[in-house]
């Protein structure tokens, strides 16, 4: 089974890119972030023509998450991250699919830091850790996939010294990510590529893609019930070079049956 996560950075503006990649990569399940689309503007008809069904949580101009599935029925469990009823940002959706639970998340960026946006990021991170711990206690197969907006280590950024004060690389979110992993989650990409520089995001400025001046922001965390099934994982980095593409590339993994 092939599962992917992709920050699409505006699903309607990038729809040709998304459809082209779906035809090429043929993932079974896809987690999309940063839809930047209201609920009723989600391009469900175009996606259904490729054989996918979808559940989504849209938001005007910002945020938005969706999960696509090809031939695998989905049941929505949650459309918000628990812990703050006042938080109306569309940043989390969770489904049961293929006898496992898939949580798709778009963690706040947090810049500029310090400030209100960074405080919101860290509060959201604390809610995620609490919910992730609860999911592990349920003793079921779980994937937490998405754009975490965290650079976990110096191996995950092309020039660490330039990012020390950025909300993506500050010590607070890095410690929070490390604490999340310590609960018992497996970072799929880092597990299979322990010493390799694997990047998932290239800024639009300064020819970052051409120079491979990049970051790893998009992650798959697997519960112990799924970790033993992990057989491969990678990044479709060539998609970042397509015309009118997202600044992220799709990340994928393979689970043995």
UniProtKB/TrEMBL annotation:
Q: Which cofactor does it need?
A: Mg(2+)
UniProt-recorded Gene Ontology molecular function terms:
double-stranded DNA 3'-5' DNA exonuclease activity
Q: Which InterPro entries match?
A: AP_endonuc_1, AP_endonuclease_F1_BS, Endo/exonu/phosph_ase_sf, Endo/exonuclease/phosphatase, ExoIII-like
Q: Which UniProt keywords apply?
A: Hydrolase, Magnesium, Metal-binding
Domain named Endonuclease/exonuclease/phosphatase: which ranges? Answer: 4-248
Q: Which PROSITE patterns match?
A: AP_NUCLEASE_F1_1 (PS00726), AP_NUCLEASE_F1_4 (PS51435)
Q: Give the highest taxon in the source lineage.
A: Bacteria
Record keywords: Signal included?
Answer: no
Entry EC number(s): 3.1.11.2
Which PANTHER family does the record match to this protein? Answer: EXODEOXYRIBONUCLEASE III
Identify its protein family: Belongs to the DNA repair enzymes AP/ExoA family.
This chain belongs to the protein called: Exodeoxyribonuclease III
